[in-house]
Amino acid sequence: MINTAITTASGIPVADNQNSLTAGPRGPVLLQDFHLIEKLQHFNRERIPERVVHAKGSGAYGTFTVTHDIRRYTKAELFSAIGQKTDVFVRFSTVGGERGSADTERDPRGFAVRFYTAQGNWDLVGNNTPMFFIKDGIKFPDFVHTQKRCPQTNLKSPTMMFDFWSKAPESLHQVTMLFSDRGTPDGYRHMDGFGSHTFSLINDAGERVYVKWHLKSRQGIRNLSAAEATRIAGTDPDYAQRDLFGAIAAGNFPQWDVKLQVATAAELAAWEQRTGWNPFDLTKVWPHKDFPLIPVGVMELNRNPLNYHAEVEQAALSPANIVPGMGYSPDKMLQARLFAYHDAQLYRVGTNHQHLPVNAPRCPFHNQQRDGAMAIHNGGAAQNYDTVAAAGSAPQGMGHGEPALELTGAAGRYDGRGQEDDYTQAGNLFRLMSPQAQQNLFDNLAGPLSQVSSEIIARQLAQFDQADPAYGAGVRAALKARGVVL
């Protein structure tokens, strides 16, 4: 008989496979959580040689130009003056499909931007949605496995997907976005981008504010109907790649307005007290009426890569790459990604992937790292160690000179899921849709839901009902139209 109890790869029983080990309920995540580390490390090594997620992508170069002064929030050099330009590289992608999959599949889209600043590379690694399916990185391998192929049939499985989602109310907000019209964007030029996570900015006085980054398409939002997306998948599976490359080659350079939402820790605490929403929860958004968008600059893509493999496939971005004047937040998903993305690139591209031209900073850099595969810049005869400051040092807070982040609470695995509101924001998103967009949502959901068990359907419908009774009723009607007996 197979033992179904979860253990580590060494056979050690896992006490909790739902929650990361954190310092207090909000974190940050502790490095001693070996189960989380082992789980993410193994997950990053499951595919050779393509990315585990975001395997199929398109890339282009361009510039970011500052249009508004945000120096009261950050000392980051790239925002020093109006009109200042910074070179960028952007990689767009689908998430769940393989390198040969279709560009028009119903899937979130990756939207990753590298800014080659004078202080090093800043990687804003996000999606075309402002929220995500889960709130704790320990569930990321589990979630992505449901979006990949069934280990028995090697087919995509609606049962796997909705079995996971129907038991995870936290996913409903993103599921609603995924099965809306925005789940099949019309190429990469006609969609917005989001940093998604909460990050922070630090000014010259050492004051921290928390921020969310937004990139708003100047081309306007355009989406494909479900039928059109399916048709294009069969006739031109590289549709988004062809559209982006062709537009830039023709001089039709796409642009995005770069904006941000800003809040102090005190403002977020007051907002949480009023709404009940954790501002660092990736399954939630900050409503614009509470935290208005502030303009920052404009990003333009104006140059295609010359070698796809060297410049797009080997591009290795990580949200851990921030520059002085920036910081992180206690977002549990962000904390996991800070480790997992760089680790994935070490495995997928190589130990010295930062030496490759697309990944190398365009400012002077120096460290004591030596040797390993692809050691293009290996330091020569320079000293490969740093001595101990025996008389003591004067550290400037955390990384990059940011102020220390106060932590509270005992280290433990904290699960607040049963007490958290996972329905209101999903309902708000549903109520923002036009009647036709709502009907499209019902029909898009009814397709895969009609292929799963009645038990899973009932669980998922119960989630729709809690978001908005009309949401559940609409999906029920669409299921019945497909002959599903409820």
From TrEMBL:
Active-site positions on this chain: 54, 127
Domain (Catalase core) ranges: 7-394
Task performed by this protein: Decomposes hydrogen peroxide into water and oxygen; serves to protect cells from the toxic effects of hydrogen peroxide.
Swiss-Prot/TrEMBL cofactor(s): heme
Catalytic reaction annotation: 2 H2O2 = O2 + 2 H2O
One term of GO molecular function: metal ion binding
InterPro entries according to UniProt: Catalase (IPR018028), Catalase_3 (IPR040333), Catalase_AS (IPR024708), Catalase_clade1/3 (IPR024711), Catalase_core (IPR011614), Catalase_haem_BS (IPR002226), Catalase_immune_responsive (IPR010582), Catalase_sf (IPR020835)
EC number annotated for this UniProt entry: 1.11.1.6
Species per Swiss-Prot/TrEMBL record: Duganella fentianensis
Alphabetically ordered keywords of this record: Heme, Hydrogen peroxide, Iron, Metal-binding, Oxidoreductase, Peroxidase
SMART domains per record: Catalase (SM01060)
A GO CC annotation given for this chain: cytoplasm
Name of this chain's protein: Catalase
Keyword Metal-binding: yes
CDD domains per record: catalase_clade_3
